Amino acid sequence: MSDPIQKNLIAITDRIRQSAEKCGRNPETVRLVAVSKTVDVDRVQEAISAGARILGENYVQEAREKINALSRNDISWHFIGHLQSNKAKYAVRLFDLIHSVDSVKLAREIDKHAAKIAKHQRVLVQVNISGETTKSGISEEKTIHLVKEISQLANLSIKGLMTMPPFFNAPDKVRPFFAALRALADRIRAEQIPNVQMDELSMGMTGDFEAAIEEGATLVRVGTAIFGER
Question: How many CA atoms within 13 Å lie on the side-chain side of 150?
Fold first, then answer.
């Protein structure tokens, strides 16, 4: 086993635990998504052997090859990148949770292909909480309407929200965006929409996951701090 990956994973796990305990949360309510995009199969296997249980991928084709190669492992695969509608059929077959649903069109494609294989696909709605034009995601103002539309699809189940805030070197500058996503989830929860749960908040990456945990993250997406620079 590669010492750097093992040591990095242990260090990140410890930091997640400490951040959760610092704000009075049960550390078990926060799960690590080890972002393995562009990482080769052998190094991903090292991370799995070191304790990684959720792997996050951004590209369907790359993920398909890894999932096939690593199929002997009991792990969960999450899709965390921008998903094109024409790749939905593959994503449904490969991933336990899709973090990046941001339109009715995409949701309908996922629903259609999930129905074909008798699967109930778990998804998160991606929110462009910062309003940056360079980022994917539905606007905060339109999120509740989108959630209500997706909730009517029989083969999808909304489990929560995801966001990618602006990049800052200072985590506290990102904190308001995490807080805004949590507040939005609270508003959606209060609507009591059938087939919709707000159990998951996917937010926080290598540089800011501790602030995200303090603001309610349940899934933190960490790649560089585990696998090193790409």
Answer: 31
Task: List, in sequence order, every residue forming a beta bridge with 220; answer none if it has no partner.
Answer: 32
Closest CA to 49 of 41, 57, 58: 41
Residues 6+ apart with CB under 8 A from 161: 124, 125, 126, 127, 143, 181, 184, 185, 188, 198, 200, 201, 202
Beta-sheet pairing, 76-79 with 97-101: parallel
In Å, what is the CA distance from 63 to each residue of 55, 70, 167?
10, 10, 25
Q: Domain 3-227: which CATH class?
A: alpha beta
Q: Taking a C-beta distance cutoff of 8 angstroms, is the pair 200, 221 a contact?
A: no
pLDDT digits (tens, 9 = 90+) for 169-189: 777 899 999 999 999 999 999
